[in-house]
Design brief:
Radius of gyration: 29 Å
Helix content: 55-70%
Number of helices: 28
Mean pLDDT: 91
Number of domains: 3
Strand content: under 5%
Oligomer: single chain
Structural class: mainly alpha
Strand order of the largest sheet: 4-3-5-7-6
Length: 672
């Protein structure tokens, strides 16, 4: 419950707000012109000024109706002035965004900042007046907190160790996403439009990535930094949800399993697959939704929507999880209506948050339906026409084809080997975790009418259907179902915890001479052995079998990545030529080269080199020359060396094998 600040404080706020409104009006008038965007900016600044003036007036207003509203809201933990300001700025954001899309799509950053401001004010409007008591909570849960911090630190070490060089190369999708991020500052169209998505990747997220590039440069490390951060933070996020659903022990087991998962480690170290962000945002959204209703907290309901809003602005699958929130609310209304008693205000704030936070993305989707649904148009089982074609080719009924897709999706966890974007040749789960997951899957289905277990089932099965069965081809299911990997780990942990509790209950009857302390020591010993086995299986799979054998992508993609790394250290003015072979690596198709080289121009020389200097090389080399040859044409570099003596010839190695040969010549006649 909030109480009104003293009159002196409210007067001070109103004075500051009035001053801000005046300054906004002055700025709006001083930048006025008859250009459409300038007129839109004028309306924006005047609208902000009007809202500041209104809230300043209401803060000290003696109006009876406002006093009643203020008292009613504060009794329910809300700050009505901030709430009004949040809704007003949210509405202004939507109007500005809609009109801007009508004018053109050459956006700057004002619209996005308005959206962030509205979201921040919405959170502040429901922030508790009393101190959160973090120190007291930390002291009470010191051991638990240290355990979670230890797991998070371990996760960070596994995800950040040699991040810039492991995997050794970046693939084409990583390079393309990096280039999109760079283009958000100067291009036009979708890439500079907030709340939109380029092939599913949110432009808001791309802009954040470009900010990282501006701080530490566009490198393999900076390209992978955000996924690594998200993968690390997914550990405490999973712990929070699992603890809410079951118990601290279940949460600790689930977080440990996710920390060591070779799949989660890998996709935390590559930007090519944006589903890693689902493992961070979805557990937080579900945690805030469930705890918000159970604790009747408007703030948590707002945070639930905010997590989904941030996710939508990161990758397109965020819309799936927004639907899941509504499905969970509908399910609880059927199986546990008591959960909604006393939750009128939190649910109302949930609705307000949807309007303020999600509306801009809805506007973009409605106005640009083709771009909005581009991923499903290509990869959708139904929308792409794949199901009808497959049924016609195989002669199977469509229902049978869908059933096979369903089994293929489930098979990724324990049976089918990984292929796309990883190629490690093993299933998602190690054998021991897979056994516990199978048991946990059945256990969760048996307990599904529990309001907490239905959250877990909704997340897992919703992901299997939305990102598995309704998408193609099946070879993509492994990395797409990364979105439910934390849910699978929670299921495995729930099974393990259930088994431990069963042993504890049966101890007195089955092992009367075994004390509780002895049983605890035995359990800890078994846990250490099991964890050591799981750690060995997962870490040797990733850091040994995968990283040590250079299994990331095809040889052509690896050649491109190695060349990009080499070009990154050269002056951009260097003339670069490639001696390719048919059906092999050549300059042009590989965006990893473009990103790492700073978009250096590369020229292919397809004809074998002869005694005479080819036309492409005539006049080249004023600022340095680099000729790159695939192994089959490496001998031709001897001719280049004769034409440009004094350079350096070397092999670019890939796990000890010669992937490419380069001849590096500088205008001074020597290489550095």
């Amino acid at each position: 419950m909030h109480s009104s600040p003293p009159l002196s404080v409210r007067l001070r706020y109103s004075q500051i707000a009035y001053l801000g409104a005046i300054l906004l009006c002055v700025y709006a008038v001083s930048t006025l012109s008859d250009e459409p965007r300038a007129l839109l900016n004028l309306g924006t600044w005047l609208g902000l000024a009007a809202m500041l003036a209104l809230t300043a007036y209401l803060s000290t207003s003696p109006l009876t109706w406002w006093t009643r509203i203020n008292e009613w809201a504060q009794a329910r933990g809300l700050r009505p002035v901030l709430l009004l300001l949040a809704v007003g700025i949210g509405l202004l954001t939507c109007i500005r965004f809609l009109l801007y899309l009508r004018i053109g799509t050459d956006f700057k950053s004002t619209t996005a900042m308005l959206w962030l401001t509205a979201a921040g004010l919405l959170v502040a409007s429901a922030w508790p007046a009393q101190p959160l008591g973090v120190r007291a909570w930390a002291a009470l849960h010191r051991r638990e907190l240290l355990q979670v911090l230890g797991l998070t630190a371990t996760a960070a070490a596994l995800r950040f160790w040699k991040l810039g060089s492991l995997p050794k190369i970046i693939n084409g999708d990583e390079g393309l996403i990096g280039m999109w991020a760079q283009d958000t500052t100067w291009a036009s169209g979708i890439l500079t439009t907030p709340f939109s998505a380029m092939d599913g990747v949110g432009t808001f997220y791309l802009r954040v990535m470009n900010t990282v590039f501006g701080l530490i440069g566009p490198t393999q490390f900076s390209l992978r930094l955000l996924p690594a951060i998200a993968g690390t933070l997914a550990i405490p996020a999973t712990y929070l949800l699992a603890r809410r659903l079951f118990s601290p022990r279940t949460a600790l087991i689930a977080a440990a399993l996710l920390t060591l998962s070779h799949v989660h480690i890998h996709f935390s170290r590559t930007v090519a697959v944006s589903y890693i962000y689902t493992t961070l945002f979805v557990p937080l959204a579900l945690y805030f939704l469930l705890s918000g209703l159970e604790r009747r907290s408007p703030l948590r309901m707002i945070l639930s929507v905010l997590m989904v809003g941030l996710h939508i602005n990161t990758y397109v699958d965020g819309w799936v999880w927004l639907v899941l929130l509504f499905l969970l609310l509908a399910s609880w209304a059927i199986i546990d209506r008591g959960l909604f008693r006393g939750n009128a205000v939190p649910l109302a704030m949930f609705a307000v948050a949807l309007v303020v936070i999600i509306s801009p993305m809805v506007i973009w989707g409605v106005l640009f339906p083709a771009e909005f649904s581009s991923r499903m148009a290509v990869d959708g089982t139904f929308t792409s026409g794949w199901l009808e074609t497959e049924a016609a080719l195989t002669g199977k009924h469509q229902a049978l084809v869908l059933g096979e897709l369903f089994l293929a999706a489930l098979g990724t966890f324990t049976q089918r080997p990984f292929i796309d974007f990883y190629g490690v040749g093993v299933p998602t789960l190690d054998k021991l975790t897979g056994i516990f997951w199978t048991f946990g899957l059945a256990l969760a289905l048996w307990q599904t009418f529990n309001r907490r277990v239905i959250v877990l089932n909704g997340w897992f099965w919703g992901g299997v259907v939305a990102l598995g069965v309704t998408t193609v081809p099946p070879s993509t299911y492994h990395y797409r179902l990364l979105v439910v990997l934390p849910a699978a780990m929670i299921m495995a942990a729930h099974a393990c915890d259930t088994l431990l509790r069963r042993v504890e209950r049966e101890r007195e009857q089955s092992l009367p001479n075994l004390s509780a302390a002895q049983l605890g020591s035995l359990q800890k010993g078994l846990a250490v052995v099991a964890l050591a086995f799981i750690a060995y299986s997962n870490l040797t799979t990733y850091f040994g079998v995968f990283a040590g054998a250079c299994k990331y992508e095809t040889i052509e993609t690896r050649q491109a990545g190695l060349l990009g790394r080499y070009l990154h250290g050269l002056p951009r003015e260097t003339d670069v030529f490639v001696l390719p072979q048919e059906h092999g690596f050549r300059a042009g198709p590989f965006r990893s080269v473009d990103f790492l080289s700073g978009r250096m121009e590369l020229t292919n020389i397809d004809e074998p080199l002869g005694a005479e200097l080819p036309a492409a090389l005539k006049g080249a080399g004023e600022d340095g020359l680099l000729v790159v040859a695939v192994p089959g044409r490496a001998d031709e570099l001897e001719l280049v060396e004769a034409w440009y003596p004094g350079g350096q010839r070397m092999a670019l190695l890939d796990c000890g094998s010669e992937a490419l040969w380069v001849y590096d010549w500088r205008a001074s006649g020597a290489t550095s």
